[in-house]
Structure formats: C-alpha cells, structure tokens
Amino acid sequence: MKSIFFGIIVLCFFSTTNTFAQDVALGKVEKNVKTQLNSVLIAYYEIKDALVLTDAKATQTKATNYLASLEKVEQSKLTAIQHTFWKEQKANLLKVATQIQQSSDVEVQRQHFETLSDGMWTVMKTFAANKGVIYKQYCPMAFNDKGASWLSDRSDIRNPYFGNVMLKCGYVAEEF
Length: 176
Fold this sequence. Notes:
Layout: H1 2-14, H2 18-25, H3 31-52, H4 56-71, H5 80-102, H6 106-127, E1 135-139, H7 142-145, E2 148-152, E3 171-175
Antiparallel strand pairs: 1-2, 1-3
Helix pairs in contact: 3-4, 3-6, 4-5, 5-6
C-alpha cells in the first residue's frame, strides 16, 4: 500500500513536467508526427487571426485549411495508446472545424472556435508538439461574461471573440 501511495506521489510530482507526463501517458511521439501536429496548430492560429479581423469568409477558408492539416497527421506512426487518444481528439476537432467552415456567420464561428480552442489545448499539452511558446489567453467578457480562452503564438492580446470591437480584451492565462 505504501509503495502504491509513493508511486502516485512521484507520478503527481513529475506530471508537472510535460515531457515526463507525455512519455508516461502516451510514450514518445515521433518527430514527423510532432511536425504535423505543429502544422495543425499553425492552421488553428490562422483561423484565430481571421476571427480577429471579423472576416467570416476568411475564417471559412482557414477552417478548410485546418481540416486538411488534420488529415495529414500520420496516424500510422502513432503507438496504440497515442492512436486511441488522437482518434478521439481528431473526431472532435474535425466536427467543430467543419461547423466553423460551414457557417458564414462570424458569431456562430466564434462559438465553435471556443470548442476548437479547448480541443487544441488538450492536444498540444498532451503531444507537446509546439515548436514555439503557446499563449493560452482568456477574455472574461466573451459570450455575455461567461468567458472563453484561445491560443496564440504571441503574448499580445488580439481577441478573436470581439475582433476590433474590443481587440485587446483579455490576458495571458497560461504559457506552454
């Protein structure tokens, strides 16, 4: 019993180190897959930037590019546990990105973007595939003060939920 308790404490302590948690949970992720997942992240940033501009048509186009980037992730290069995790995450990401792509209403796109942002954060934290710092940013006023997060490759705030109406509303909540 003591050894199980000690093992849990050690795991909790080291799980704060992303590399260790990733290796324990999913095993080492192949370099090519990390590069492909980083491309998915870049495509996500492009959707965010189109929403910052309040450009529904550009957002649809960027969502199409995002969907294509998801399909380029080589699932065959994943271990069984990685594949199971990715399959579930990819299905969720595909669903919400398709909803963004199919909507011509920027407010609807923004609602789906919140879900996409949460999913991308989960994937990037789990696979640690980002090549640069990810800034998880938060706007407490989004969606009638419910609040919402998004990811950015820059620390300066460019709010995709309000665009030019309240471009700088928000703050960096976390870095990864």
